[in-house]
Design the sequence.
């Protein structure tokens, strides 16, 4: 299995704060890698650094063997990296349709792809011409994910997609992400919901204080309660 | 619908108001005789286009620029200097256009590339500094610009008031070069507003709206935001310079007070806010309300003050004295911002239910 994304000794400073302190990680092609950790561990900063939204102060980031750490965010996006930020990041003044058209940079929307997305998120069809700002939280998150998958991407960076969503919507999101996985997508997924992480992850990376403190298979972590408690301060049983 | 680029006013009242304004402007030379009415109508046309171009920047990208009057001034001075230097002929008009528009676009490009990379406040500060420098430059280069006196010039024969195109005997009213100039101003302003409507409703316009809302999110989708913002800045500058050309042609004069003054910049800001940001239509409404108030509020107050005085009412004659018209203009704007925080267009559209839900793609 080749590694699509590789970070070697990545440091990121935000102002005077040293957030990422030498991150080494790989994301294998065609697999879903979970990035777990307590609040403030540096998970979101890792995704933002990969995306070029924060500049790495040291270290190397490569995508399919190509250095991307000195590239601008739009260039990284154009290389095929889709980013779903946390907090239901839609363009609220634009309609659902306009949000998706904006993300489909290669031209008009692909009807087959759109129907596939509507299969998971029927609300998007219903509110097609409504302003994204008028959608509910769950619908906004659906739109945010739909925007990232409206076109094929080499790599998807998804930040806490289930945060603040109702259980029924979380299940729909998990099913959608599973389907995206089945289609062969490579995903780096930040998640606090351990149940979702277990359902989706092939591999797992656990962060603490800006470093990776554990790496391995998701199934192994899911089966090891003492390890979960040591690394994350919680167990899967407690979370269910 | 094609002509409006698929973006109709979306409110019956707004449509009615816009149609009334456009019809009144189109018929001004025949409906409202006299130089003042024609001057006011021409100013509304020019400012509607100028304010619409500023709306492209402020309303659609969220960039606050103080250099808009500079571009307006570049257009005005280019045509004035060309007609003053080369004489009243069409070659001079063409020279003014060929020099003025690219100069405005180049300057906008330079300002954009230099300052749109950084935070919005720096862009505002840099445009303020450049505009101030340009104002001083225009004043200092008096051999070229006429300094504080500005430049008066003559128009080509066809556009002069003395040129009679249709005599009074034919239809009962005379069409002369002045009226032809007015329709030139009216038509070109209309074309520019429709072109801006097309721009904001194009995929490029959607990207601008996305940038306004969240620049980083737009970059994460692969949009080079500096390019988009700079392009919008250049387009706005081109329209502002064109409005400046029209204004100079109408006034047959370009000077610091009519083309470069910061009070014009404040007027533009007020017109955008009153009309409604990010709507383009707001420019027409804002310019009409503001310019009508600027020109007729004083006389209206005079009539009201006299009436109150004759009726023997206390206080009112003094409060409505024509000398206090600026105070009332100020209060009018405070009230309009208070009661129409999203502008007149925003308010009317919200009443009509903006962007209703659709059922299928």
Sequence:
């Amino acid at each position: 299995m080749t590694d699509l994304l590789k970070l070697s000794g990545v440091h990121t400073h935000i102002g005077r704060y040293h957030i990422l302190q030498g991150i080494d990680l790989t994301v294998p092609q065609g697999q879903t890698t979970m990035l777990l950790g307590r609040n403030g561990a540096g998970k979101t900063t890792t995704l933002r650094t990969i995306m070029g939204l924060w500049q790495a102060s040291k270290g190397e980031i490569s995508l399919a063997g190509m250095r991307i750490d000195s590239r601008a965010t739009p260039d990284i996006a154009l290389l095929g990296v889709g980013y779903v930020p946390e907090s239901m990041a839609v363009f609220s003044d634009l309609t659902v349709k306009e949000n998706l058209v904006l993300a489909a940079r290669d031209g008009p929307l692909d009807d087959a792809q759109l129907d596939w997305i509507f299969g998971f998120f029927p609300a998007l069809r219903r509110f097609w011409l409504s302003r994204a700002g008028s959608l509910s939280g769950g619908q906004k998150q659906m739109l945010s994910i739909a925007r990232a998958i409206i076109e094929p991407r080499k790599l998807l960076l998804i930040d806490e997609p289930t945060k603040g969503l109702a259980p029924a919507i979380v299940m729909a999101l998990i099913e959608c992400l599973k389907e995206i996985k089945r289609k062969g997508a490579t995903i780096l997924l930040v998640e606090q919901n351990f149940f979702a992480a277990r359902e989706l992850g092939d591999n797992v990376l656990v962060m603490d204080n800006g470093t990776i403190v554990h790496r391995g298979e998701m199934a192994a972590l899911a089966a090891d309660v003492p390890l979960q408690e040591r690394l994350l301060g919680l167990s899967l049983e407690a979370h269910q | 619908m094609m002509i409006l680029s698929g973006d109709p006013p979306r409110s019956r009242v707004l449509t009615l108001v816009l149609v009334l304004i456009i019809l009144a402007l189109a018929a001004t030379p025949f409906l409202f005789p006299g130089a003042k009415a024609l001057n006011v109508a021409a100013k509304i046309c020019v400012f509607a286009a100028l304010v619409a171009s500023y709306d492209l920047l402020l309303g659609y990208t969220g960039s606050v620029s103080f250099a808009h009057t500079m571009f307006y001034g570049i257009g005005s001075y280019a045509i004035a200097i060309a007609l003053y230097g080369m004489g009243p002929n069409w070659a001079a008009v063409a020279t003014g256009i060929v020099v003025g528009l690219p100069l405005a676009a180049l300057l906008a490009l330079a300002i954009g590339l230099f300052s749109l990379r950084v935070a919005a406040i720096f862009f505002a500060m840099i445009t303020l500094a450049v505009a101030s420098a340009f104002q001083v430059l225009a004043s200092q280069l008096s051999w070229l610009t006429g300094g504080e006196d500005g430049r008066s010039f003559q128009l080509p024969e066809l556009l002069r008031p003395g040129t009679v195109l249709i005599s009074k005997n034919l239809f009962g009213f005379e069409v002369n070069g002045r009226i032809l100039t007015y329709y030139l101003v009216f038509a070109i302003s209309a074309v520019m507003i429709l072109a801006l409507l097309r721009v904001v409703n194009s995929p490029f316009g959607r990207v601008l709206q996305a940038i306004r809302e969240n620049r980083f999110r737009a970059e994460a989708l692969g949009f080079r935001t500096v390019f988009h913002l700079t392009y919008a800045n250049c387009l706005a500058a081109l329209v502002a310079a064109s409005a400046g050309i029209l204004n100079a042609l109408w006034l047959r004069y370009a000077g610091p007070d009519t083309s470069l003054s910061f009070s014009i910049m404040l007027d533009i800001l007020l017109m955008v806010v009153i009309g409604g940001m990010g709507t383009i239509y707001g420019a027409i409404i804002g310019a009409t309300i503001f310019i009508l108030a600027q020109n007729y509020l004083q006389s209206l107050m005079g009539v009201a003050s006299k009436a109150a005085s004759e009726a023997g009412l206390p206080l009112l004659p003094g409060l409505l004295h024509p000398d206090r018209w600026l105070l009332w203009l100020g209060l009018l704007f405070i009230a309009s911002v208070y009661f129409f925080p999203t502008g007149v267009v925003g308010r009317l559209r919200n009443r009509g239910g903006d962007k209703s839900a659709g059922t299928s793609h």
Q: What stands out?
A: The mean pLDDT of chain A is 89.
